[in-house]
Amino acid sequence: MFECLILGDSTGVGTAQAINARYERHCDVQAAERATAAQVLSWRRPGKRYNTCIFSMGSNDMAGPALAARLAEIRAQFCFNRVIWLLPYARPQAYTVSSVAARFGDETLDLGRFRSRDGVHPLRYGDVAAALLK
Predict the structure, then answer these.
(1) CA–CA separation, 77 vs 123, rounded Å?
(2) Helix, strand or coil for residue 113?
(3) N or C: which end of the chain has fewer CB within 10 A?
(4) Which tens digit of pLDDT belongs to each residue from 74-88?
């Protein structure tokens, strides 16, 4: 069973809805529209451990060292068997997120693979869910 925590911004919200629609056992979600990495850092940590964590962050932040530091701090607070970062459509932010993922040996899924109307959100979250659940 795919048991996970989805943490982050509106892309995390949409991805969680698509994943949870596919399976009886749902992923837990700590995600909100327009959430920044700084806001995610201020959220209370879940009380349980997860096999998989999907991080969806960076789209609402400026790319650069400050974002990288916040993402690394978030990542360091979580211990999971598998972490997957959703890389934002915006390339500067995607590069920042990717560098943090590489530092921790985590997986990435580039949202740039998926069609988007606004350059921020996937057109079909079901496609993202299917790619994550392979």
Answers:
(1) 31
(2) helix
(3) C
(4) 998 876 788 999 999
pLDDT recorded at residue 25: 66
Q: Which token pair is 11?
A: 């892309």
DSSP string covering 26-48? PPEEEE-TT--HHHHHHSPPPSS
DSSP-derived secondary structure letter, 44? P
Residue type, 27: C
Choose among 84, 92, 94: nearest CA to 7. Answer: 84
Q: Where are the domains of the chain?
A: 4-132
Which CATH code for domain 4-132? 3.40.50.1110
Helices (H) then strands (E): counts for the chain: 5, 5
Output the six-digit token pair for 82: 């598998």
- Token pair for 90: 């915006």
Q: What is the pTM of this model?
A: 0.93
- Closest to 111 measured CA to CA, from 122, 102, 101: 122
